[in-house]
Write a structure and sequence with these properties.
2 helices, single chain, two-stranded antiparallel ribbon
Amino acid sequence: MELSDSELAGVKSYREYLACDLLRYLQDTLPRRSMQIFSIKVTDLRYGLIWPLQIYGSVAFRNSIGHKANYLFRCTRDSFQTITQKV
């Protein structure tokens, strides 16, 4: 079933509606603390690596609401994180 031009006049597209609807929830909001939990499992050490491992680098993601990077892990070479072997 197709709608006529007069029936569609003033009707927002789905994307326009969605963007406006999301903005309603994002305006005047207070930042809140959150906790992100993730884990890593090392199954095999190769290339001369030995325990404990000193890891550094960045793992980030973006979402469609806020285009800023959300870091899951971010350590520099000077402030690495140490992973020990689980016994």
